[in-house]
Amino acid sequence: MKTILFSLLMLGASTIADAQTVKAEFNKGDTTVYQTVAKGTMDMPMGAGREQLSTTVDTRYVVLDKSKNGYRLETTITSLKYDGKEEVVSQMVSPEEKYLEGVKMVFLTDANGKITKIENYEEVVAKASENALAEIEKLYKENPAVEQIMPKGNVIMAISKQLEEPNIIDFIEYSTFMGLYGKKLSNGFKENLKVVQDVKTTATYETSESQGALNVKRTQKSNMTDEDVKAMIISNMKKMGLGEEVTSQIENNWGQMKAMGMTNLTYDSTETFNFSPKGWVTTATLNRKVEVMGMSMKLDQNTTITKKNW
Questions:
Q1: Cα–Cα distance measured from residue 5 to residue 73, given in angstroms and rounded to the nearest whole number
Q2: How far is CA 279 from the centre of its chain?
Q3: Secondary structure class of 110 (helix, strand, coil)
Q4: CA 25, CA 92: separation in Å to the nearest integer?
């Protein structure tokens, strides 16, 4: 019995020792530019064919200042290019990404690198709103009939909500490696997350270390009930500016949709993040598959450094 207890204690000690906090070790003036290239496919409902999408995103990070309390980190999506039909883009490219293109965001972080605040939030929301309004004006000019089902005023109000400070921080954290800073990770560690379009998942982590560099693998699977899926779909419709007359159809027809097998949602993804000893990610990959409302979407994404000075 003593031997068993001793073994269990040693196992516990080993698990605790393996736990590691993901921590930035940046220096003032560090500049890193990443390019993220993604290719995706979307199989349409009812065998209506397959659409393809490709995107290339360049993002620049500059450490403006460093103190014992944390960092001032400037982040800018300097370029966003995509190729694919608009309906595919709307499903697979986050609108926040489009609105924030070219907008310098200055994040304040804690000592680990976890974002706590957007220092220049008023400037960020003003420029992002300008980008969003330009896109809205173009949409309604090219498609005047959209006003009947999605009034422009509703869309503007919905975008204002998306661009609130906590929502921008959430977007940056789930769509980049920034969301890992401050997490205490060990092999087998699990947590519940909310990711793209408010999909709820359970994430499981695997970690390893080589020559002071941390490697993190994260797998995610959806953990949503039918009611969660319904609430998510309605919420995303409202974020687009659709009114009660449209969203109520989902509520009223949910039983019929369920009988057709269109209320199930599955989300599976595998991500890898390779950190340098300084805390910068050197490479990252994402492989994601989502099935919802009869659509099946796959995305393969690779992030690499194109420029750095450290």
A1: 47
A2: 20
A3: coil
A4: 33
